[in-house]
Design goal:
By secondary structure, this protein is α+β, with helices and mostly antiparallel strands. Strands 3-6-8-9-10-11 form a six-stranded mixed beta sheet. A three-stranded mixed beta sheet has the order 5-4-7, with no helix packed on it. The protein is globular and about 50 Å long.
Length: 202
């Protein structure tokens, strides 16, 4: 994929500095800056990790973790929405040469990302609203959300401005097919994915 350079002014980084302090004081929490605001997510529960592992293994079985692309959990993504904005998706599919796109703060340019995936937790609104705008603005081709609150799988494609032109929610009992542009043919049993992410309380 072609790489567009992300221009970042150098100097003070007050939000990034505060994000670093929050991470030091809260081990296991994920700290991101979206739209100039710090977003702190709690450590994932077991079912969150379960569904994430299932999807990682499924994607890897299609050859997506190979010579041309890599599947990476918790990799930083610089965002064009602010001078310090970055996100840390649960799982990302990136070009194999992603290391050539390093910016700073353990984050990489959006141009090397093919797909980002979020599994919702207690701050599910951020995944369904704020991150839609952020990832669309970064022109991430495919954004996938495992919505554990409403038991749906969302596949968003074709970023345009701060939204996606195509947003397809899937319910248990349906089969979701991801765009071939990610590098492989991937079909998903929505019911199985949703079930893997359920807690005993659901």
């Amino acid at each position: 994929m072609s790489a567009a350079s992300v221009e970042r002014p150098h100097g003070d980084r007050p939000l990034i500095a505060e994000a670093g302090r929050l991470m030091e004081r809260n081990p296991g929490y994920r700290v991101e800056i979206i739209g100039g605001k710090i977003l702190v997510s709690p450590p994932p529960d077991g079912p969150h990790g379960n569904v994430l592992t299932d999807l990682l293994l499924l994607f890897a079985s299609t050859g997506l973790h190979g010579v041309e692309s890599r599947l990476i959990q918790g990799i930083g993504l610089w965002l064009p929405t602010g001078t310090e904005d970055y996100a840390i998706p649960d799982l990302s599919l990136v070009d194999a040469d992603y290391e050539e796109h390093h910016v700073e703060n353990n984050c990489y340019e959006p141009a090397c990302f093919r797909l980002v995936l979020e599994v919702t937790s207690s701050n599910w609104k951020a995944d369904l609203r704020d991150k839609v705008k952020a990832y669309a603005g970064a022109k991430i081709p495919v954004y996938m959300i495992v919505d554990r609150k409403y038991q749906r799988l969302h596949v968003l494609t074709d970023p345009a401005g701060d939204d996606y032109e195509n947003h397809r929610p899937y319910s248990p009992g349906e089969i979701a097919t991801l765009p071939g542009s990610i590098g492989a043919e991937v079909t998903l049993d929505v019911g199985r994915i949703i079930k893997a992410g359920q807690t005993n309380a659901n």
